[in-house]
Design a protein that fits this description.
9 helices; rod-shaped; alpha+beta
């Protein structure tokens, strides 16, 4: 190194050191925080501030960034825990939890291992909640169970500055003996429903047949009533004619009835011989005489 340069550096050493210190102080005072993170600042080992996204300023040599915390949503590894239902059935429940840190100062100073703490808490809540429900309720009310687990977990992890965004029950596994018993019960229930459906069908068919018979009887009764009304009307007409026309009208009606009876007898099938009494022949004669108006 040339002597002139050495002499220059020795005379301006203090200025150079001062410039370096000023540059380091300025660079230490400015902290640019990414959008996905928050910085926890300590001063002499105590919490000083939490820096949000953007440009932030701290006191050089006194403050330091102790923790850089990501605020992105995190997913815990899928965990499995055994639980016993209210009807004493052993099940293995697979759960998954999503969360994010919203207050880094609580997460840093109140809990050491966040993931392990949340996993342990979830296991305890799942066992507690499933212990109050029967197996059928666990299978059919899974959405309600998930909501209860999420609410219970949210109340606990709030002290750690954590927000639970989702809690899912991925599967509820049973042992082989329980599966076989449930399958047998399911088959029995299906058979019972089939028998009930068949019995209801037979009952409905009987009801419809009875309704049909009742309807036919009602229609027959109506027809009988109409015929009775017609016959009554005819009898009234005959009675009126007798009152107006005298004995000749009555004799005419009797003769016509006798003719109708003989006509019906003559319509029989096969070869047959009909013996007519003398009164019947006289009835034909009387009817013709009445038709001609004779006496």
């Amino acid at each position: 190194m040339p002597p002139a340069l050495i002499d220059l550096l020795s005379r301006n050493l203090a200025l150079i050191v001062l410039a370096v210190v000023i540059f380091y102080a300025i660079s230490s005072a400015v902290r640019i925080v990414p959008q996905s993170e928050k910085y926890v600042v300590e001063r002499f080992g105590r919490l000083r501030a939490v820096l949000g996204p953007g440009i932030n300023f701290i006191v050089p040599f006194l403050d330091r960034v102790a923790h850089k915390i990501s605020v992105l949503e995190r997913q815990l590894p899928t965990s499995r825990q055994d639980a016993i239902t209210a009807d004493n059935v052993l099940v293995q429940v697979e759960t998954s939890v999503f969360y994010r840190i919203i207050e880094p100062e609580k997460t840093v100073y109140r809990i050491r291992d966040v993931d392990a703490a949340i996993s342990t808490t979830v296991a305890g809540i799942v066992r507690s909640e499933i212990g109050t429900m029967e197996l059928d309720q666990v299978q059919s009310n899974r959405a309600h169970l998930i909501e209860r687990i999420r609410e219970s977990l949210a109340n606990i992890v709030d002290d750690w500055g954590i927000e639970v965004t989702r809690a899912e029950i991925l599967d509820v596994n049973l042992d082989e003996a329980t599966r076989a018993a449930m399958l047998q019960q399911l088959n029995a229930e299906r058979a019972r429903r089939a028998q009930v459906t068949e019995a209801e069908g037979r009952k409905r068919a009987v009801e419809l047949a009875a309704d049909g018979d009742l309807y036919a009887a009602e229609q027959q009764a109506k027809a009988t009533r109409v015929l009775a009304d017609a016959e009554a009307y005819a009898n009234n007409a005959i009675a009126s004619a007798i009152r107006e026309g005298g004995i000749e009208a009555a004799q005419y009606q009797i003769a016509m009835r006798q003719v109708d009876v003989l006509n019906t007898v003559g319509k029989g099938q096969g070869k047959q011989t009909i013996l007519l009494p003398t009164a019947a022949i006289e009835a034909f004669g009387d009817a013709f005489k009445l038709l001609r108006g004779g006496k």
